[in-house]
Amino acid sequence: MDRLLKSARSSGSLNLSNRSLSEVPVEVYRNLDGIGGDDDKWWEAVELQKLILAHNSIELLKEDIRNLSCLVVLNLSHNSLSQLPAAIGELPELKMLDVSHNLIVRIPEEIGSAASLVKFDCSNNQLTELPSELGRCLALSDLKGSNNLIASLPEDLAKCSKLSKLDMEGNKLTVISENLISSWTMLTELNAAKNMLNGIPVGIGGLSRLIRLDLHQNRISSIPSSIIGCHSLAEFYLGNNNISTIPVEIGELSRLGTFDLHSNQLKDYPVEACKLSLLVLNLSNNSLSGLPPEMGKMTSLRKLLLSGNPLRTLRSSLVTGPTPALLRFLRSRLSQGEDSETATTSKKDIIAMATRLSISSKELSMGGLELSAIPSQVWESEEVIRLDLSKNSIQELPVELSSCVSLQTLILSKNQIKDWPGSVLKSLSSLSCLKLDYNPLRQIPSNGFEAVPKLQILDLSGNEASLLDGPSFSSLPNLQELYLRKMRLTKVPSDILGLHQLRILDLSQNSLQSIPEGLKNITSLVELDLSNNNISSLPPELGLLEPSLQALRLDGNPLRSIRRTVLDKGTKAVLKYLKDKLPEE
């Protein structure tokens, strides 16, 4: 603790999260005065600017917090606070305040004096209202108050004209006033799902920058025609409401990629809405008896969900089958002239739509587009965390991909990649999931895995030559899932036995003849797939993985040492049988 406090004097940042603290250390309130000895270089000390106290058991934040007058970031999330001190308003530099996941019943009105506040998260508390004084925080751009008991929003929030993100999901709101909506012209994301809203304000049409609108699970009965003004809208969620009709104006939202209308009371889908260039359309659990043939022109659709409708004009196999087949059927019902006008959505348009959707979801999906190279939109998209480029013809990763430093999941399954892209992967410092299965991948260098030390999921299945050089799995200490199907392996790579966090290990469809007893040391293993190999016997030590091992797949092996009656009883019976074979100590 002393070391952390002393370090904070020079860095201006103090992280005391996950320390089982029941109270804030008194040294923190003193702005770290008195930390260290006489030999401290006091002239190099800086004021505390960032204080992280998340994931503790703190019940009280004292008024002494006013001593930290230079504080910019304060994170008190996941504690046991029931209130905030009035002194929170005496932090003139405070820009980010996170008090989510506490037991707070009231936000003090003094919050309005925190004039620099930009981001405020008070979600997952027990609030019944937000103070009207919050409207004095004129710089506020990101407000999150989800999962509380708030019945209405104070009209003074209209003064927060810079608001760009508002999340009030899971409250008791019955209305969002026209005054508020018309004042928030900078909004890009609005989430008011799981409330009791009776309608959508007509003023919604003034939100020309709105990208994501989530109003699912409310009591909304109609969509105002003014929605035509939301021309930046990319995602619109209205599932679980009482909507019976869709306004024809919806067809003018040219950037809309996801439209979710599941579990409403729709009786038809308007022809005008067939002009949309959607990727996902969810119409499940409505009262649709048919679909307009013009829907066949929506060739950009990757997913059309229709289950739970009394569709009498379509065979059930079409409704539940692949979307392209349904679209072809609908097109066949168009007159010949109309059908010839149907232009297949270009690859360029689909990439553009996927890029738009990634703005809020941070996920970019470009699978199955017959791409031979990764389009530049990938590294031009800010903060993408998940990138799916599977089922293409990509041969290499461009160096520009190195700039995607937020990337956590990279899916490159079923491409034409031949060389291990170590130099690019090394720059992706946040990467935790890498799927390179079924590529013609040549051998991975012995130090290849050093490029991705934070990996938790790795799939190299179907790359038969990739492990010839014996790349060291010991460079992947955080690995939790490893898939090595169809690799022509004749033995289990020995350093896999040292992966102590491994939960899933898939070695199916190989040529393994035996299993090392050292597998018993991977005590975190939950699934082990050894199916379709040449294994004739299992080491009794494998029985020591009971009870953590939940699934042991052995079918397709010439096992002679275990009776068929035992195998048929499943994992627990097999592990018990093996354990009973261990020699008594």
TrEMBL record:
The keyword Kinase applies. PANTHER family: PTHR48051, RAS SUPPRESSOR PROTEIN 1. The keyword Kinase applies. This is LRR receptor-like kinase. PROSITE patterns: LRR. It comes from the Eukaryota. Pfam families: LRR_1, LRR_8. SUPFAM superfamilies: L domain-like. The gene is 25487362. GO terms for molecular function: kinase activity. Transmembrane segments: none annotated. The lineage of its organism: Eukaryota, Viridiplantae, Streptophyta, Embryophyta, Tracheophyta. Keywords: Kinase, Leucine-rich repeat, Receptor, Repeat, Transferase.
